[in-house]
């Protein structure tokens, strides 16, 4: 009798039905974990928005506006330098990459049109969201995670202070507001960089470049970019805070939450960007 048929020993090869069963169990567990995660983030957002609404209708209820200003400086003002540098490089890259194929058709002046649409609709909010994810999102998760490990959140609850109200709401609002403003800054910087490269290197007349940019852009282009930026900010802030609140396991848990925040935020941003693009295409806003 072979070893694989010896009673009491596990077969070396699994039957196809066993492989399918294990694959099904893994899929169900992964789906359950995903739905639980998404549901937890959604409930936290709803709870945070409820506190914001209550603070608007009832002035006696406050969520810590000084904390909001601190977070705006921390997440927004300190990110401006990185956003400007990255956006300026993106504008230069787009101009240099688009010029050769367009020059073959004698349409090098339309570089301005392509850069304007690509930056305002897509790259401005997307680049800003990715930069603020690595710059601020991981920081929020690590900060709140350290508080969870040190039992500071339990201390807040023991003093009848709601963590969502005093920790999540200021950071959530700050990421939304900061990302919308940073997206506008990124748009202006990238468009300026494209203009500089177009006028100096590609020898496009400045008046033609500016006229093509203004003619190409419309109010819908700015609106779609700002809507994306606001939603991206909501995603980054909520995912960061949720991962921070769920930290357990000491310093290792804080590191895991920080890594998960960056990964989850970028995946959520890309998926949401695809969803918005499909919706705007269906509505004729593209």
Give a brief rundown of this model.
With 286 residues, the protein is mainly alpha-helical. It has one domain. Helix content is 82%, strand content 0%.
Query: Fraction of residues in helices?
Result: over 70%
Query: In percent, how much strand structure appears in the residues?
Result: under 5%
Cα distance spanning the termini = 70 Å
What is the domain tally?
Answer: 1
Q: Over the alpha carbons, how many angstroms does the gyration radius reach?
A: 24 Å
Runs in which pLDDT lies below 50 for 5 or more consecutive residues are 1-5
Overall body shape: globular
Outline the structure in words.
This protein has one domain (65-283). Mean pLDDT is 86; it is low at 1-5. It contains 9 helices and no strands. It starts with 15 loop residues before the first helix and ends with a helix. Helix 2 (65-75) runs parallel beside helix 6. The protein is mainly alpha-helical.
Keywords:
9 helices; about 290 residues; mainly alpha; disordered N terminus; about 0% strand; single chain; globular
Strand and helix map with partners:
Blueprint lengths: L15 H42 L7 H11 L4 H25 L6 H39 L2 H7 L4 H38 L5 H11 L2 H27 L4 H34 L3
Helix pairs in contact: 1-6, 1-8, 2-6, 3-4, 3-6, 4-6, 4-7, 4-8, 4-9, 6-8, 8-9
